Structure formats: structure tokens, C-alpha cells
From TrEMBL:
Keywords: DNA-binding, Transcription, Transcription regulation. GO terms for molecular function: DNA binding. This is Ribonuclease R-like protein with winged-helix domain. Transmembrane segments: none annotated.
Length: 278
């Protein structure tokens, strides 16, 4: 079943890797084009398909209502086809933006990431205060307890506990836009940045501060005080920003960038890691 309105269902098009380049070639064309012209267009983008394969796929796209034959001139996109490629291209741009957003490599990138988190996470915990259950509170409290024990035992860089707390405490938001933004700023590919933050906090002897701040957030959530939980999260992330700025001022941003690049190598054990003030 297809909708002939652009706001309706996308349809039942065979979604394989050939669909996007074929629809894109038709989208970019100034008029109807045939299999030979599409083949040349695809070649310019490094895609090799035979004319017979293209012709077969075009017939399938016709049956899906995405393309239409225009006499002997070739094919064009239907309204549904234009809607379909628009959705696919937007999704591709979004994926590209996500890749760029999670390519944190410089000290400035780290600060930008933390500032983005400061804008998003307080809203998520504000909403969480009205949704968390006693079981959720107990689970969050357990993370804080484990974090405290790790720091007390001298276990360096408990990034899974610290970042795990942020992921779990913000997971209750039912706002799809907030959740989409959280998926970016808390993406697993950014764990290496959290590792660098752990180093900074230990160097500056502030690693216990995060434990206390996390505990205060849990207590605000347990009291269902969303405004307080949001303010505590905002203050917590503001302190992390200040810690990074002070570290950069004292040791130079290049060291932070080295910490990020070391990702997963056990930064605390790397022989090259010994911060010296500049």
C-alpha cells in the first residue's frame, strides 16, 4: 500500500544499497533519464552497475510507485519517490552530522561537548524526577556507591561508573528530541573523552567531588524535586567544564588532546603521561 501524499507512508520499496544512488540520480536529473544515463551518473560516484541491473531495479521502483516511465524518454521520480529520497538524504545528513559531532579530538571539542551536555542533561533529569521508581533510585544509588568504593580503593579512572550514571539518570526522559540529543552527547564512541576527564579530575584531586554531586542528584530525584535535580546536574557539568579549562590553562590543551588519542590504551599506564605545568 502506498500513500500518494508526501506526508504519508514511505511505501514498500526494496530498501537495498542500490536504491539510494538510483533515486539520487533521478532526483539530480533535469528531466527523464534512462538506464544508460543513470549508469554514467553512478560511475561518477564510483558505483558500477550494469544497464540490465539498472533497468530491472527501475522496474521494481516503478512497481513501488517511486518512479514512472515518461514515454521513450526515460523515467522520473513520482511525488512519493521525491518524498522517499528526501527522507533518505536527510537521514544520511543526520548520520554524517552524528559522525562529525562525535569526532572529539581537540580541547575545544571537549569543552563544546560538555557545554552541550550541560544544555541537555538537566532537562532530562528534570523530567526523570517525575518518572523514576524506587527501583530506579536504588539502582542509581548503587552506581554512586560503587563509584565511591572505586575512588576510595584507589582504582583509577572508573569511567564506566561515572558515565554509566549519566546514561542511566537521563534515560527516563520521554521527550524524543531530548533522547535523540542524548544519544549523540553520550554516544559510546565518546567514552575516550570520559577517560580523559577521569585523568583530569585525578590530577586535580577532584575525583571525589563527582561522587558527592551524583549522590545529591539521586537524593533530589528520590524527593521528586525535578528543579533541584536539574540545577544540581547543571552545576556538576559546569564544574567539569571549569576543571577542563583549569587543566588546559595549567598543562596546555595539547596534553588533553594526547589523552583523548590514547583512548583505551590505559592512559594511566602510558609512559608518556606525566603532566607538567607550562
Amino acid at each position: 500500500m502506498h500513500s500518494d501524499g508526501v506526508g504519508g507512508p514511505i511505501g514498500t520499496s526494496r530498501g537495498d544499497r542500490e536504491e539510494v544512488p538510483l533515486l539520487t540520480a533521478l532526483y539530480d536529473a533535469t528531466g527523464p533519464i534512462g538506464a544508460r544515463q543513470i549508469r554514467e551518473s553512478l560511475r561518477l560516484h564510483g558505483i558500477e552497475l550494469s544497464e540490465s541491473t539498472i533497468a530491472r531495479r527501475l522496474r521494481e521502483l516503478d512497481s513501488d510507485g517511486l518512479t514512472q516511465q515518461v514515454g521513450l524518454k526515460g523515467r522520473t521520480l513520482t511525488t512519493l519517490g521525491r518524498h522517499r529520497i528526501g527522507v533518505l538524504l536527510r537521514a544520511d545528513r543526520t548520520a554524517t552530522d552524528l559522525r562529525h559531532a562525535t569526532q572529539v579530538e581537540t580541547a575545544e571539542d571537549v569543552l563544546n561537548l560538555l557545554k552541550a551536555r550541560r544544555a541537555i542533561e538537566p532537562e532530562a533529569v528534570f523530567e526523570s524526577a517525575h518518572l523514576v521508581t524506587p527501583h530506579d533510585i536504588a539502582s542509581l544509588g548503587g552506581l554512586v556507591t560503587d563509584h565511591d568504593a572505586a575512588v576510595g580503593a584507589g582504582d583509577s579512572f572508573p569511567r564506566d561508573l561515572a558515565l554509566g550514571f549519566h546514561r542511566r539518570v537521563t534515560a527516563h526522559s520521554e521527550n524524543p528530541l531530548v533522547q535523540a540529543m542524548l544519544a549523540i552527547v553520550l554516544d559510546p564512541s565518546l567514552d575516550r573523552v570520559e577517560a580523559a576527564l577521569d585523568v583530569i579530575l585525578e590530577v586535580r584531586h577532584r575525583d571525589r567531588d563527582s561522587v558527592a554531586e551524583h549522590q545529591a542528584i539521586v537524593e533530589a530525584l528520590a524527593a521528586h524535586d525535578g528543579a533541584l535535580a536539574a540545577e544540581l546536574m547543571r552545576s556538576h557539568l559546569s564544574r567539569l567544564i571549569a576543571e577542563v579549562e583549569a587543566f588546559i590553562e595549567r598543562y596546555d590543551g595539547a596534553l588533553l588532546e594526547r589523552l583523548i588519542r590514547w583512548n583505551g590504551r590505559g592512559v594511566e599506564q602510558d609512559a608518556g603521561w606525566s603532566p607538567q605545568p607550562h
